[in-house]
Structures are given as C-alpha cells and as structure tokens.
Amino acid sequence: MTQTITLYVDGACRGNPGLGGWGAYIITESEKHKLCGGEAETTNNRMELTAAIEGIQFCPRDAKLIIWTDSKYVKQGITEWIHGWKKKNWKDVKNPDLWKLLDATCQGRDIEWNWIKGHAGHPGNEMADQLANQGADQTLIAMKNLLSSAETVLEQADMLDKKKAEQDWLLDDPFGFDLMEAELQDDSEVLENDVLENAEQENPQADTMQPQAQAPEPVLESATSASEKPLHPHIVITPRSKEVHGPRQLILDTETTGFYFQDTDRIIEVGAIEMVNRKLTGSSIHIYINPQKPVGESENIHGISDEFLKDKPLYAEIADVLFDYLKGAEIIAHNATFDMNFLDMEFKRAGFVALSEVCEVTDTLAMAKSKHPGQKNSLDALVRRYEIPQRDRTFHGALLDAEILADVYLAMTGGQVSFDMDTLTEAEQQQGQTARSAVQIDLPVILPSAEELEAHENWVKQFEEKHGTACLFAK
C-alpha cells in the first residue's frame, strides 16, 4: 500500500540577497526527518525552491506527497505559472535553474501542493522555519571558520612585513602625531603602574597574578543611571569624559558560547561604547558572564576559557544594570540580528522585556552590503577597505570589536567630524557652502521610445490579466 508523506518546507534569507538557509520537515507514517542547508549569497525565493527540491528528493518516488509551503511564489509557480514558462521556453523567468530542477523532480510523482500562512504558530511550518535558520547558521559558522583562518594568515603576514619595514617617521608622520600618541600612552602606562604599586604596598598579601584574558576591572559609576546602589564587582562602567547632549548611540558587540540562541547557547561577554552626535563620550560598559555551560570550540574565536568565567556573575545578576545602561539608545551592531536575538533571549530569561522593544537597532552589516554589494563585508574586511588603523584581533573581544565598529560606522556614514563647526566664522561657513554648491552635474535624460512605451503597456496589461490586480508600474 502506497504510503503518504507530509512535508513542510521553508526558506530564510538574511539580506535578500545575503546569507540564506532552507529547511524541510518530513513526516512519514513511522518517523520524522529534519533536513537543512544553506548558501552564503542567495535569495529567499531560491531557498524556498531549494527546500521543496531537497524535501521531495528525500522521499521515495512511489509515495504520495502532501507538501505545505508558506511561499505563494513556489505554490503558484509549480501549479500554475510553470505551464506558461515552458511554452515560452523559460524566457524572462527568474531562477530558471531551480524551477527546471523542481519540475524534473516532480515528474512521475503524486504530489499535492498546499499553501500555509507563515509565522502563524503552525507546528510544522514553525519547525521548517527553524530548520531554515539552522541551515543559515551552519553556513555562517563554516564561513566564519574559513574567514578566520584566512584572516589569521593575512594578519600574521602583515605583522611580519611591519617588523621587516623600517619606520620613517618623517615620511609617515611628518607632524609627529603618532609620536605624541605614543608619549601619551607611555604616560598612562606609568600612571597605571604607580596605581598598582600603591595597591600592592597597601595589601602586600594580595595575589597580583591575573589571567591573560582579564584586565584590571575598576568599578566606576554609570553615566546613565542616577541610582546609588553598588554595582557588581565584575561590571565595568566608565563615565563620560565630556559633556554632550543628544540621542545616545551604543556601538555594541557580544561573545557567546555558540550560534544558536534558540537552543542552549549563552552570552559570555558584552561590550558597548557610547556615542552622541558622532562623538565618542568616553562612556562604556563591559561585562564577563558565567554561561553555566562549557564554551567549547567557541574559545578558538574569543579566547575566553571556562576557567576564566567560573567566578563571573550569572546574567540574572547583572541584567538590571545592563538593561538600564542600554535601554532607550540606538544599538549599532555588525550582524545585529545575531546580537539582539541573544540579548532578547537573555533579558526575557531574567524577567525583562526584550531589549529590541525599548531600543532602535542599526545593522552595519546590512549597511555594508548595500554600499558594497558583492564584496566581503566582514568587520576585518571593512577595516581594510576604509583604512582604519589595525588592532590586534588574535581573539575577538566584545569591547575591542565595539571600538573597531565605531570607527567603521563613522567611516561608512561620512567620517568623524574633525573640527567643530561652531568655531568657524560666518564667512568661512558661507565659503564652504558656496564651494559645495558650485559642483553641479547635469545628468542626461533618456526618454523611452514609442516601441518601448507600447511594450511597457502590453506587459502591464498581461500582468493585470494574470493576477487580477492593478500593476504597480501602471501609469
């Protein structure tokens, strides 16, 4: 007797085009199967088609298949539109390779196609959606591993080249700015050493040995909270070093035990720096967190060990201070969906509302893909593209990555203001405006021909006849 198999198929894409994944949840009479995969650069429609193809190919040819998809593009395409596409020899059809493969995969099979509303709480569709995102996550992990290996090799080569090259300060730094910065750093190191020596003299029995990943953690008052209650000793909040007024932006990064916020992975580090009116205020927050689970292979990325985290606070212990610091600000993060998913999950576990409900979110990865389509847009790639000074990124630390991202964000959005406009005279401001307005480009205007207008009208009529609705491109 022919068996009946039910399939729920779905696709997901982060960027469209961008990182994508597909999932197929297959229910037979005796067992259930979960399939998933992904691609680094794809579209949502291609992932929807791939999910259907992979799901069907997994099933026996003699089985009756009942397929549920939340994509009308797939359902109507395979049941209605495909007949016209074949007659026109696939002319002007997007994704013809996948449509041809789906058509060939369906030949000789007994298939019933159904549409289901997505994200409506149906268990089968929700599982397919989860599998699609899992496929995207697995692809992202593979990409990061490859990029990390390649970037490590490049960084090591750059370090060797820098060591070999003899620095000519007169050529590279004729005004001595780098020398001035080095002197300031030397002064700060001397001051820090004096503080440590004084502390040792006051408490000679104290153990001064610190793990390499743990820097001295002074506890400072929050720049955003009027509360006088003492902070947890492992929460480091630095106050503003300058008076500024305006909406707060927080450049943020997290480190986690893995990539699956919906499963058991947890946040182990949060770092954020404050910016107002495109100027860093000096305020920041930095916290290490005990995830209550092994960090596993993720230690190869961030360098934070289980031993280092064992005495750190749980998320529930620091949630109120972190939430007070972050709420109301615009959160700027690279691949912000990743960080916000984890933060929302952790805050909900601690009894708070999701952070995304009280903060505006800006994703610099989406910005970079829009500005540089088809190019690498990792944080390291953007650092090289915008010629931002290199920092040691042997390991990815949250606060370090936030500092780098601040430079990248300012470069992508026009660069940091190098002088204060208020100090310019009125004549200088008018002169600058005149210089800018003098640059005018007359763009050519190309009008459509009569044949092109007629072809456009025919296409609009065909669209309206086929779909029964007015076309967006009608006059």
Explain what the structure shows.
The protein has helices spanning 44-58, 72-87, 96-106, 123-164, 169-172, 177-202, 299-302, 306-309, 315-326, 336-349, 364-371, 379-385, 398-412, 426-437, 450-467; strands at 4-14, 18-27, 32-42, 64-69, 110-115, 235-238, 248-256, 267-276, 279-288, 330-333, 360-363. With 475 residues, it is of the alpha/beta class. The protein has two domains: 4-140, Nucleotidyltransferase, domain 5 (2-Layer Sandwich); 217-412, Ribonuclease H-like superfamily/Ribonuclease H (Nucleotidyltransferase, domain 5), CATH 3.30.420.10. The termini are far apart.
What can be said about this structure in brief?
By secondary structure, the protein is an alpha/beta fold. The protein is built from 15 helices and eleven strands. The strands form two sheets. Strands 6-9-8-7-10-11 form a six-stranded mixed β-sheet. A five-stranded mixed β-sheet has the order 3-2-1-4-5.
Topology:
Layout: E1 4-14, E2 18-27, E3 32-42, H1 44-58, E4 64-69, H2 72-87, H3 96-106, E5 110-115, H4 123-164, H5 169-172, H6 177-202, E6 235-238, E7 248-256, E8 267-276, E9 279-288, H7 299-302, H8 306-309, H9 315-326, E10 330-333, H10 336-349, E11 360-363, H11 364-371, H12 379-385, H13 398-412, H14 426-437, H15 450-467
Helix pairs in contact: 1-3
Active site: 396
Pfam families: RNase_H, RNase_T
Keywords: Cytoplasm, DNA replication, DNA-directed DNA polymerase, Endonuclease, Exonuclease, Hydrolase, Magnesium, Manganese, Metal-binding, Nuclease, Nucleotidyltransferase, Transferase
